[in-house]
Amino acid sequence: MTSKPSLTCEALINQAADRINSDSPRLDAELLLSHITGLGRTSFRAWPEREVTESQAETFEALVAERVAGTPVAYLLGHQEFWSLPLKVSASTLIPRPDTECLVETALGLPLPEQARVLDLGTGTGAIALALASEHPGWRITACDEVDEAVELARENSRLLALPVSVVNSSWFSQLEPARFDLIVSNPPYIPGSDPHLGEGDVRFEPASALVSGTDGLDDLRLIVTQSPDWLVEGGWLLVEHGFHQAGPVAALFRDRGFAEVRGLQDYGRRDRMTLG
Ligand code: GLN
């Protein structure tokens, strides 16, 4: 007689966590089981012997198999939290990173008018624009992306969260209506094409167009820094995210283009990840 596989939350999570190869295997397993059962993650610890149904266990196993094969948890759940906002994600956009919340925090600390005009270049899911909109209902925020699916997704997130952001289909500035902004923010692609990091973890499943930018990773940042002054009001700000080895070259781009008050800023892990001018 074969013994029935255990259907307790604890057993399912343990077996999954043993197989998932990530920085947080147990968390990944808990998030997937929570997604399927509708049970809160903390309940798995409070009541580990609780059983799920056979069909829930089967659905869980299917998702775990995909996670074991490397699919990011956010793609399996269909959403990712950013700035405490539940954002829908899809395989056509970058998964918003907690590091980028640091960029949001920096933007919120700038001296800007009550009705600031703000532009988020390469918005993806809409993460940065929507986070800013959630804090400043008075700001007039435009977000753009060159990928149709990203534009649709950012619009959908804006609608679902009831946060007004005007989302435009545009590769950087090319399709934008002429305007002047108080603040331009961007988390553009900045990984060099040959970076071995691209062969590891979640980035393998994310769109290269959201990650890679030429041989030195700076092609898009060069364009953004060069063109931004034509889209900023006098005294307006440009704030960009970049890789932690790029702070020097990016600051040089800002200075060469005539930006004043160029400041390098660190992310929550104390790495040089943002430049403001
Ligand atoms: N920080 C991300 C990573 O290294 C990349 C984000 C980006 O290219 N904008 O995975």
From TrEMBL:
Catalysed reactions, semicolon-separated: L-glutaminyl-[peptide chain release factor] + S-adenosyl-L-methionine = N(5)-methyl-L-glutaminyl-[peptide chain release factor] + S-adenosyl-L-homocysteine + H(+)
Keyword DNA-binding: no
Residue ranges of every copy of the Release factor glutamine methyltransferase N-terminal domain listed in the record: 14-78
CDD domains in the record: AdoMet_MTases (cd02440)
Record bears the keyword Transport: no
E.C. designation(s): 2.1.1.297
Pfam family, one: MTS
Residues noted as binding substrate in the record, renumbered to the chain: 187-190
GO terms, biological process: methylation
InterPro entries: DNA_methylase_N6_adenine_CS, HemK-like, N5-glutamine_MTase, PrmC_N, RF_methyltr_PrmC, SAM-dependent_MTases_sf, Small_mtfrase_dom
Residues bound to S-adenosyl-L-methionine: 122-126, 145, 172, 187
Family to which the UniProt record says this protein belongs: Belongs to the protein N5-glutamine methyltransferase family. PrmC subfamily.
Xref: PANTHER family: HEMK METHYLTRANSFERASE, MTRF1L RELEASE FACTOR GLUTAMINE METHYLTRANSFERASE
Name used for this protein in its record: Release factor glutamine methyltransferase
Taxonomic path: Bacteria, Pseudomonadati, Pseudomonadota, Gammaproteobacteria, Pseudomonadales
Originating gene: prmC
